[in-house]
Structures are given as C-alpha cells and as structure tokens.
Design a protein that fits this description.
It contains 5 helices and 12 strands. The chain is α+β, with helices and mostly antiparallel strands and 291 residues long. The strands form 2 sheets. Strands 4, 5, 6, 7, 8, 9 and 12 form a 7-stranded antiparallel sheet that branches. The protein has a 5-stranded antiparallel sheet with strand order 3-2-1-11-10, with helices on one face. The chain starts with 14 loop residues before the first strand and ends in an 18-residue tail after the last strand. The structure holds uric acid. The site of uric acid (URC) has 7 residues, from helix 5. One of its GO terms (biological process) is urate catabolic process. It catalyses: urate + O2 + H2O = 5-hydroxyisourate + H2O2.
Amino acid sequence: MAIVLGPNQYGKAETRVVRVYRDTARHELRDLAVSTALRGDFEAAHVTGDQAAVLPTDSQKNTVFAYAAEKGIRTIEDFGLQLGRHFVEELPAVDGAQIGIDEYSWDRVNDYSFVRRGQETRTTVVTVADDRAWVVSGLKDLVIAKTTGSEFRGFLQDRYTTLPETDDRILATSLIARWRYTGTELDWDASWSAIRTLLLTTFAEVYSHALQHTLYAMGQVVLEQRPEVAEIRFSAPNRHHFLVDLEPFGVENPGEVFFAADRPYGLIEATVLRDDGPDPGPAWYAVPGFC
Ligand SMILES: O=c1[nH]c(=O)c2[nH]c(=O)[nH]c2[nH]1
C-alpha cells in the first residue's frame, strides 16, 4: 500500500476589495469578495514540505488589490479572467486557477454615498403595561457608505496610538437605529419612510468629522423634523476601509483601492433626545444593542 496525495488546491479566500472610481465628482463603487485557488504540481509542498513552487496566498491577495488598481474592475467576469490567466501564465507549477467572486450591490444616494441593496430590516418593539403603550420602531442592517466627505483627525494620541489622521476616508456602517414615538396613533408607514429618508440623506450630505458626529447629525435632523419622535438611539459598527499600500508593487493608490476589514470594528453608539420629551417608561427595557 502507498499513501499518495490526491486532488488539492490552495489560495486566498474572500479578499474584500473595494474599488472606488473618483475621476469625476460622481464616484463609482465596486465591492467584492475575491477567492483565488491555484492547482498544479504542489506535491512537494505537501509531501516533503518544500515550498519552492508555492506562491503565498498573501501574494495572491496582493495581486487582487494591485489588479483592482491597475486593471480596474469592469465586471467581475473580466476581473476573474484576468486574475486566473495571470496565475496560470506566470507560475510554472500552476496549470489551473479558479477565481470565485461575489459582488455586493450598492444603490446610489448622491454622488459619493451609497446604500447596500437588499439588506435592511424594519423593526418595532411595542410595550404595553397597564393602560399605557410605547412604540419603538427602527431599522437594522442598513448598510451605508460614503466615499468622500469624511475625516477623522484631531483625536487624542497616547503612547499606543498609531492611527494616522485622515481628511478623506471611506465612512461605512451597518446601522441599527431605533426611535421612540411620543404617541401610539400615527401613520406608521409614512413616519418610518420619512425617518429612513432623513437618516440616509443626512449621512450622505453632512460632512463627517467622525461617525459620532454623523450619528448626532442624523438624530438631530430626525428630532427637528419629526415631532412624533421623542428619542432616537443608534448602534453603528464602523466598517473600516483601509487604503491598501500598493507602493511595494510600484502601483499608485490615490484613494481608489481599499481593504474592507471585517473585525475588529469600532462600535459607536449614541442616543439623541428631546430634553422635554415624555418619559420612556419601560419602552427600552430588554431592547438589545443599546447603551
Ligand atoms: O469615526 C470614528 N470614530 C472613532 O472613534 C474612531 N476611532 C478610530 O480608530 N477610527 C474612528 N473613526
């Protein structure tokens, strides 16, 4: 009996690359998860441990970022073909490559702000106690991003601070918002839609000094324009988009190619309320996700 290596492949799974086209004031956004897998003669890598033929998965990831910058992403099919051909043509041990790409679709809010399609959920929590009732409605998983109009600087620096200041970054979050109504007789659909629109347009249009600043601005507008709302609470994970350093490959990256990080993430939570609003009673009791 002999033990032999059977079918095998290796690569980098789900490289989260965001490509921004910012040649005009009307930005375009492409948001992908790219998985590469290489096949070929990798017997030595497994059997004797010799990695001479193995292009690291890290390099495959770098190739995805560099190609996003240099070749651009016209369609995921074109992008996959370019990557696959590159690996097969350039690497002697590789006789096959499989590139899997998922693309996340975004709808436009303004020239540089976008909302992810088909993600969000409308919510309500109704509390009834004795002869009273409270309604807390909201939304969750509203994924929004702006490709400019956002900075983060002037922050406190201590000996552990390495974050560079930035005056132009991608700001993105998967928003949870819940608002408490002052009453229980209302056109709920109309109110919910109007508040959602205010949240979206304020996120898009108000220049952001930080996610904290954006949340407050959104809450302020809702309370100013919707008298039926007493209070609004936000829970907003900061979905970090890190500019990829492509200099080692001689490729420029003027705010065009980003790594969309998964974890860890900043979690910014805030309440904005009228100081003369009605008592919340037990409206928030056991409602998850808020400070
Ligand atoms: O909008 C932000 N608020 C923060 O508190 C923070 N902290 C951080 O590292 N990046 C950011 N961004």
